[in-house]
TrEMBL record:
HAMAP family: HutU. Its main location: cytoplasm. InterPro entries: Urocanase (IPR055351), Urocanase-like (IPR023637), Urocanase_C (IPR035401), Urocanase_central_sf (IPR038364), Urocanase_CS (IPR023636), Urocanase_N (IPR035400), Urocanase_Rossmann-like (IPR035085), Urocanase_sf (IPR036190). SUPFAM superfamilies: Urocanase. This is Urocanate hydratase. Belongs to the urocanase family. Residues 459-662 form the Urocanase C-terminal domain. NAD(+) binds at G125, G126, Q203, E282, Y409, G609. GO terms for cellular component: cytoplasm. One of its GO terms (biological process) is L-histidine catabolic process to glutamate and formate. The gene is hutU.
Length: 688
């Protein structure tokens, strides 16, 4: 059967043969066995809903076995036989370009070159799912292939509720993932309700079909590392043996971190672009091998003494180089302390949003030993994780006392370390203490990367991870879009105020080097941090070029991790200090606003990045077709998509956002934002 017919077939009338479990593929860890036997029956009843009654007898034992073996029912046998990758848009069956664009993006999210656990439909972050099972995938692709511009597909956590009549201007797909009644949003609730087959963890771009491979994150990580280096250069805490003092930003500086997974794997590459020495610890040999073979990390080291020696040499030679240490990051922090290796920048990118199910591997246990223990003895495993987090924090604290700048990389490190009782707060005298001593409402001893870097330097001004995909699949289209985007940014930079010159320059440099850095994995995609004006102007240039036939269809989108898409008190909105960082109005407003201003699809998720119950995030996708309709939509939607977040940040009294929103109001007279009056601190100080 050819590809188009296979899509149109949906769930086949005759069951395909059982598929062998392929050990060569990176599989999701076995999930917790959390359901009672009654609940297991419910999970099976739920799974069989997708199939004709005549197939139930055959499928029941198989699904039961999947549930017992893996903790979830993935319906492996339904995984299609055709290759999974983003095809040129013309190869998809369908009645509208918009739906075909979405199919392309879904397949990209499941491409084995792109996805972390492709057979379990997990794109990244250990549990970031596109769908819960292969039946959902097949049904969705069929719906998309059949839908017209008078219909909208409703997606409830991977499950296609169906096509509903709508209209041309409505989104073609509306996605929700993991939306729970708030009281049912604890980690174990995800385990239970996901195992039942009624919800999923969509991460950010996984469940919204907007993941573009590690490139998306390389750019953000490069900006973070660059600005962190600028920060230490400004503070002139003069990193030892570094070129920061000589104006050569990264040279000789040491950056220590962990994780070579979906997003974390970008760190050594970003370190290389920023020009420092990076040590990235990773316990999973497969992840090390993948990143090393892709050229994302230069050298693999398996022995700590050798690592010390190599890092010492690199420092002496002020080399730009990245090392993958195959082992536990806790051991690196401890060893470098013993050996007095000065770390300039420190962070962590284990998946602590998912601490008990494979996101964090505790020190002192082997990789396989941990995998075994997390399902056979989850309570003991939890204790090991907590113990390891306390050890890691102790070692980090010893380094920061010696001048290391440590920041939380949005992976819930500070949060989980605090929950583990680690000394991650400071008392009045500046001593490191645990939460029990510090008091509950105390701030952590370390900032998050958003508090110190991304928030004030980028998000408050509207700069965020705008991205596009050339749906023709042609490399030359991507090249052309790169140059359109570069020209737009250069033009805008000429008139840009002093406050955003550095950001504009970093982004121009990025787009100029993007091709040479060979960042494409999967679809012909590009990420580029841009502000509202930049995003709109770039999109307009694309739309015009499509109209003229210079390039094919372009799909626009962004990471949810942006100015306005995400409410997350310990990450994206951690630099909002008026108390509203625990609210989620912005993310909800953002996605509602996008949906009626012209998005092709919208999504809103519970969880993502820092964990289930800890964040609400949303995003959009927009297919540009090179016509006036597309022009109208992009103007209306992109303006709102960025400025609603700046408006909220300005109401939070953030200076950069106040500056940016006033500038936006000057340019667009229809924009009228409520501006805060700033109380004189001395008035409050006198209050008794
Ligand atoms: N890169 C970014 O810009 C960014 C931004 C925000 C948040 N994050 C967060 O970073 C985390 C990582 O994301 P990811 O997609 O790479 O996840 P991932 O699960 O793909 O990768 C994490 C890696 O850490 C490894 N690991 C776990 N414990 C370890 C330990 N003790 N020592 C060494 N290695 C260990 C795992 O084996 C895994 O390969 C997530 O929580 C994500 O939300 C990343």
């Amino acid at each position: 059967m050819d590809f188009k017919n296979a899509i149109l077939e949906g769930i086949p009338a005759t069951l395909p043969p059982v598929k062998e479990y392929d050990p060569a593929v990176n599989h999701a860890p076995k999930r917790k066995d959390i359901l009672s036997s009654e609940e297991k029956q419910l999970a099976l009843r739920n799974a069989l809903r997708y199939f004709d009654k005549s197939q139930h007898e055959e499928l029941l034992p198989e699904f039961h076995k999947e549930l017992e073996t893996y903790g979830r029912i993935y319906m492996y046998r339904l995984r299609p036989d055709y290759e999974m990758y983003a095809r040129p848009i013309s190869e998809y069956p369908g009645k509208c370009e918009q739906a075909k664009g979405i199919m392309l993006m879904i397949q990209n999210n499941l491409d084995p070159k792109v996805a972390q656990h492709p057979h379990e439909l997990i794109t990244y972050g250990g549990n970031g799912a596109v769908f819960q099972n292969w039946a959902q995938y097949r049904l969705v692709m069929k719906y998309l292939a059949e839908m017209t511009e008078e219909q909208t597909l409703v997606m409830n956590s991977g499950h296609p509720l169906g096509l509903f009549p709508s209209h041309k201007d409505a989104p073609r797909v509306v996605v929700t993932n993991g939306m729970m009644i708030p009281n049912y949003s604890k980690q174990d609730d995800w385990e239970k309700f996901n195992a039942l087959g009624v919800t999923q963890y969509g991460q950010m771009t996984a469940g919204s079909y907007m993941y573009i491979g590690p490139q998306g994150i390389v750019h953000g990580t490069t900006i973070t590392v660059l600005n962190a280096l600028r920060k230490i250069a400004q503070k002139s805490t003069s990193p030892k043996g570094t070129g920061v003092k000589n104006g050569d930003l990264g040279a000789g500086s040491l950056f220590v971190t962990s994780g070579l997974g979906g997003m974390s794997g970008a760190q050594p590459k970003a370190g290389n672009i920023a020009g420092c020495i990076t040590v990235c610890a990773e316990v999973n040999p497969k992840a090390v091998e993948t990143r090393h073979s892709q050229g994302w990390v230069d050298v693999v080291v398996e022995d700590l003494d050798e690592l010390v020696q190599k890092v010492t040499e690199a420092k002496a030679a002020t080399k730009t180089i990245s090392f993958a240490y195959l082992g536990n990051v806790v051991d690196v922090w401890e060893k470098f302390d013993e050996e007095n290796i000065h770390i300039d920048l420190g962070s962590d990118q284990t998946s602590l949003h998912n601490p008990w199910a494979g996101g964090y591997y505790p020190a002192g246990l082997g990789f396989e030993e941990s995998n075994e223990m997390m399902s056979s003895n989850p309570e003991k495993f939890k204790e090991k994780v907590r113990e390891s987090l306390r050890r890691q924090t102790e070692a980090i604290n010893r380094h920061t006392k010696k001048g290391t700048y440590f920041f939380d990389y949005g992976n819930a490190f500070l949060l989980e370390a605090s929950r583990a009782g680690a000394k991650i707060y400071k008392d009045e005298e500046g001593n490191f203490v645990s939460g029990a001593t510090a008091g509950e409402d105390k701030d952590f001893a370390y900032p998050s990367y958003v508090q110190d870097i991304m928030g004030p330097m980028c998000f408050d001004y509207g700069f965020g991870p705008f991205r596009w995909v050339c749906a023709s699949g042609k490399e030359e289209d991507l090249e052309k879009t790169d140059s359109f985007a570069r020209d737009v940014l250069k033009k805008l930079k000429e008139q840009a105020p002093e406050e955003v010159q550095q950001q504009m320059q970093d982004n121009i440099k990025w787009i100029e080097g993007a091709r040479a850095n060979k960042l494409v994995v999967g679809s012909q995609a590009r990420i580029l941090y841009a502000d509202a004006e930049g995003r709109i102007e770039i999109a307009r240039a694309f739309n015009k070029a499509i109209e003229k036939g210079e390039i094919g269809t372009v799909i626009l989108g962004r990471d949810h991790h942006d100015v306005s898409g995400t409410d997350s008190p310990y990450r994206e909105t951690s630099n909002i200090y008026d108390g509203s960082r625990y609210t989620a109005d912005m993310a909800i407003q953002n996605v509602i606003g996008d949906s009626f201003r012209g998005a092709t699809w919208v999504s809103i998720h519970n969880g993502g990045g820092v964990g289930w119950g800890e964040v609400i995030n949303g995003g959009f996708g927009m297919v540009l077709e090179g016509n006036r309709e597309s022009e109208r939509r992009l103007n209306a939607m992109l303006f709102w998509d960025v400025n609603n977040g700046i408006a909220r940040r300005s109401w939070g009294r953030n200076p950069g956002a106040l500056f940016a929103i006033k500038r936006a109001m000057e340019k667009e007279p229809r924009l009228k934002v409520t501006i805060p009056n700033i109380v004189d601190d001395s008035l409050l100080d006198n209050l008794t």
